[in-house]
Amino acid sequence: MGSTTERRPLIINLDRSEMKTRFPNSCEEVLTVIKDAERHRKFVWTVGRVLRETALWTRLESLPYKERKIVLKRLASFLEDLAQQGVLQRRGDVQSIGYGDEIGFDYVAPERLKLTQTEKLESPVESS
């Protein structure tokens, strides 16, 4: 028989004062974590790195397996969404920085993104 436990949301809205107690619940919240950390140094972003930067690694470890898996998948999907938006750039190699082998991403700062787009527009077209 399956249990009929009520599903509760793991996270509600996150603001800066709550970052130390709740998991990020959206791409925007993950991006806030990334931008704050990238001001000090550059990181390879993985689910484990997001958890470490929000000081939630220990809290994740204390969750039951099923809830832990939900949080990890949710954070991974936020990173993938940010990569699709062009905010993160996916790395080719699997990283073993955080929670086992994970997909790594590099943050593409808006200034760098604009520069790359400008370079593409200004590059001379070769004629034959």
Which properties best describe this structure?
alpha+beta; Arc Repressor Mutant, subunit A; 3-stranded antiparallel β-sheet; 45% helix; 12% strand; disordered N terminus
Question: Explain this structure to me?
Answer:
It is a single chain. 45% of the residues lie in helices and 12% in strands. It is an alpha+beta fold and 128 residues long. It has one domain (20-122): Orthogonal Bundle (Arc Repressor Mutant, subunit A). The chain is globular.
* CATH T-level topology: Arc Repressor Mutant, subunit A
Domains counted in the coordinates: how many?
1
Main beta sheet, described?
Answer: 3 strands, antiparallel
Biggest sheet: strand arrangement = 1-3-2
Based on the structure given, which CATH architecture is correct?
Orthogonal Bundle
Low-confidence stretches: 1-20
Q: Would you state the CATH class? A: Mainly Alpha
Helix content: 40-55%
Strand-helix topology:
Layout: H1 27-38, E1 44-45, H2 47-53, H3 57-62, H4 65-84, E2 88-95, E3 102-107, H5 110-122
Antiparallel strand pairs: 1-3, 2-3
